[in-house]
Give the backbone structure.
Amino acid sequence: MLNESLKYKAALNRFAEEHHYQAPSEDEWSKAEALHGFLQEFSDATKAFSADRHPTAHLYLKMVLAIRYVLLDERWNSDELLNALADSMYEKFEKYWSKPNIVLLIAAVLDPSMKTDYLKFYFHTFGAQVDVEMRELRRYLRRYYREYERIVRSSSHVVIPTNEQPTSESNANSMSPLGPLCGKRRVEDAFAQFASQNSDSRSEKTELDAYLDDPRVIVRKEEAFNVIAWWKKNSDAYPILSLMARDFLAIPVSTVSSESAFSAAGRILGKDRLVVRSSHSVPHAGTLCAVVTAAGKCYYCNPF
């Protein structure tokens, strides 16, 4: 409503003048514009959190930081009303919003344009101990990853690519003079065996380690990045992480959209439209009556 009022400021002033109403003063209009600018960021965050056509979990940290910057903006110091409002809101912000759930942190890491770099920036902005927080986050990441890895490997229809070297028996068969391999292939197999015997005993990097070590996806300003499409495209490279991302990114930040759907259904299906009896038919229509009161009376057959 405030946005529409500012849009039609000239028309409202003219209407008030023609009908001899008291129009808002320029000072009051200025305060309304300042309040509109103050609340705009909260409106954007509400729309982002309440969306139901795309993932929202990975957007939580960005929206929280945006709200924090708005509340700490020094421009509100010049207005007594906005300054008091910002101070009161920031107090509640620190109490309820400064410590996000670990699930939302993992969802942010699973956004390839954010990864752990954005988490470090988030903890640094809030003055937390970055090393401690990141160590705790990595511990949860590895725990969830191992659980998904266990589930995926126990599933018969999911194939996980491995980099395992051929066994000694297969190497022996392939190196046999009677084998069909040519000299070039034999050299490659011999080198692979030599490298595996002389390599360090370090374990191979997991999908999670490879994903975190890869550089972030750089997204230009005002560019729409589809995180679901990215994971679908890279599901072959990260078969386990893609399943993990599918589940974590599907978690809604807010239940507003689902609650709104149930509220709308409640308004459509009221108490007088809940009883539909298959034995009751409309004689003049020859079909089942869809509008029956709780008392069992049909609105068509007994309108009064």
About this structure: The first helix runs from residue 2 to 7. The CA atoms of residues 30 and 84 lie 17 Å apart. The radius of gyration is 31 Å.
